[in-house]
Amino acid sequence: MVRTERPNSVEESAALQGIRVEQLLRTIVIRRGADDYVFVLVPGGRQIDWPKLRARLGVKRLSLPNQEEARAATGYQRGAITPFGSSRAWPVLADAAVAGLDTVAIGGGGRGINLHLAGPDLLAHLHADVADVSRPATAEG
Question: The pTM is what?
């Protein structure tokens, strides 16, 4: 476990942890339907590619829950969401880039708390589905 002060950017978070930006994983909770969610793991510097994600999950519509709904679904506040210890064991879908990372940092359930481990080990532990569901981040989001 690695603890840091609260960073102001993804670049600062990576620097505080001594890793590259692409090794930082964001856990994004996605609503597939009523009381049906999935955790999507996306490396730093990348963003969800919504058409790819919808195709992989076999749905026409996905959405991001609001802060209260995300907390109810996971037990965590936004910014600290992680599959580890979630109030419900939602499925995990990791972007394909995660599998090739020797070390990744994933949130540990609180702000400034991260777990560092090998990408393949994380995927195995979480029984994650792995697919190309992201694209390089752009300035406009």
Answer: 0.92
